Structure prediction request, 395 residues.
Amino acid sequence: MLQGKTVVLGVGGGIAAYKIPNLVSMLKKLHANVEVIMTKNAGNFITPITFESLTGNKCLMDTFDRNFQYQVEHVELAKRADVFLIAPATANGIAKVAHGIADDMLTTTFLACQAPKLIAPAMNTRMYENPITQDNLKICMKYGMKVIEPAKGRLACGDVGAGKMPEPEELLEYILMEIAYKKDLTGKKILVTAGPTWEAIDPVRYITNHSTGKMGYAVALAAARRGANVTLVSGPVSLKPPLGVNVIPVKSAEEMFEAVKEAAGEQDAVIKAAAVADYTPLVVGTEKTKKGEGDMNLALKRTKDILAWLGANRRPGQFLCGFSMETEHLVDNSKAKLEKKGVDMIVANSLRVEGAGFGTDTNVVTLITRQGVKELEKMSKDKVAHKILDEIFGR
Prediction:
């Protein structure tokens, strides 16, 4: 995913520096070239040898180190960077970069770099909340740097509050958001629905389906990484909200319909990947059993058809995409759905195909439009998401 990309990591002098080797390993597994610059104080928490072993590159610390090829090292590295992340960013380090102070290898390279810049503050809560630090962070953002909000919890000093550096997995997400894909969907507004809906029988029980939301979440994340403005209407799932996506949580099909109705008018594309429970249960009476317990009699009322509503109420130029889960006659049934709902594309898959269906990390789909049918091989849901977006936007 990051083949040919150079990630520069600036490691400040904080205890959270111990987390950065894990981030380096993750980046290397994605085939990125990783360059690490440490402050002198960072060397008190972790050694340069650790980073050199993981990256295969020299870990830079001294601006005037003579053991390098003849070039202006900090300028050359700044030119090669695709993204520059300082993590952990101490209060002192933030103050320096906010005011253009370049008195060591890290800050000198950072000042010379024109690539996207990320800062992950990590410090004592009172230091982080100090108005001086907060003003410095605002200055950083004013100059286009992106500040990754610290986590809350117990800090190394024993205090509890904001100031924990996010885990490497979250830092990786910020890097991927910056450089993983070309921003070819910048300016596009996309609405995605994902997950199941719950239709309550009583205060305890409900009717639902097996949807996990993985496919819809993959589409939302892929679109965001490509620069789109993404709104995700999500039923109840156990997935982490995608970075850079506006998530609207709902439970029932009615709530999902209202959320879609509210947001759909401003979108360039609407992708309905949610597996909505098609019927709302109605309790119409109870019967006494021999044991004296009450048995519910249920009637089922059809919920509002979100996809059909979208087809009947689309704005000019809007692209509508629905999903179809079939057990037989995949293409024929999906073509019929395409016409009946009045949409532009149906993403169809079968519960009978290995690697497709609910809860899997892969999918096997067929993209059906009025122009033709494209069968895709089994691939990760992330890759399927990009194929769907490519088809929608003609990439």
